[in-house]
Write a structure and sequence with these properties.
The protein is mostly helical and 251 residues long. It has nine helices and two strands; from the N terminus they run αααααββαααα. A two-stranded antiparallel ribbon has the order 1-2. Keywords: Membrane, Transmembrane, Transmembrane helix.
Length: 251
């Protein structure tokens, strides 16, 4: 996961620095930076927990708890980008705004509560095999990922509904409208949550934790890529408007 994250960061480094240097400072930009660097912290803690020799279960509990919290924070930050995107799509619909603003705090409180309960009630141990490092736990975040899945399903339904309405009004190509609505980002996000719901319910911790880390990384990549893409489109439209205005002023 660390390799994937570093590789993605290297591939998007130029675009990202252009965004960071040219865009104005806003709360969303701060969220972007936080979403970018939380997975770095998660990867560092995971590498330390997995490869540094450790024979203290209490230390294992701390490391696993930190990983769980950082993973949930990373997913939460990423989901917030999808939430903002949905909010922007429905900017003229007061009912949708009220629904989003009312449901989001409930989802956050529920996720925090279930994650905390899972961490507190879980048991932690180190490897009993000499030469094998790493910490082991029986913590289960099934409820948290189920809530994420429901949340993403709601956002996807709202986005899909908006895309269909736009398609009917403009008579354009449905595929193009779906792409512009970033529906495929939502689909991937929901699929990953569904996988984690299944693996958390039926697989042992050592197996389903792999998918948890995978979702944290992939969701962050999708959210950041989506935001960069939207910002680039916005910049292009501004540049075109400026060019047209300059041309008209010369007439």
């Amino acid at each position: 996961m660390a390799t994937l994250w570093i590789y993605e960061y290297a591939c998007s480094l130029q675009e990202e620095w252009t965004f960071l240097l040219q865009s104005r400072w806003t709360k969303v930009k701060g969220l972007y930076i936080a979403t970018r660097f939380v997975p770095f912290l998660l990867s560092i803690v995971h590498l330390y927990a997995n490869f540094i020799p450790n024979d203290d279960p209490a230390k294992c509990k701390v490391l696993n708890s930190v990983c769980s919290v950082l993973g949930q924070i990373s997913v939460g930050f990423s989901e917030f980008f999808f939430l903002l995107r949905t909010y922007a799509l429905w900017r003229h619909n007061r009912f949708v705004h009220v629904f989003i603003l009312a449901f989001t705090p409930v989802a956050i409180i529920a996720c925090v509560g279930t994650t905390y309960a899972s961490i507190v009630t879980a048991s932690y141990e180190v490897s009993a095999i000499p030469g094998i490092t790493g910490c082991y736990s029986n913590s289960n975040l099934f409820v948290s990922f189920l809530l994420f899945f429901i949340f993403e399903l709601g956002l996807m339904c709202l986005t899909l509904l908006h895309a269909i309405q736009s398609w009917r009004m403009t008579n354009g190509r449905l595929y193009t409208i779906l792409v512009k609505s970033n529906i495929f980002y939502y689909s991937c996000s929901m699929f990953l949550s569904a996988v984690n719901v299944f693996t958390s319910r039926y697989l042992h911790y050592q197996y389903h934790v792999i998918f948890q880390d995978y979702q944290s990384i992939i969701l962050a990549i999708l959210a950041l890529r989506m935001h960069l893409h939207i910002w680039q489109i916005d910049q292009q439209s501004h540049n075109i408007d400026a060019l047209v205005w300059t041309s008209l002023s010369d007439i």
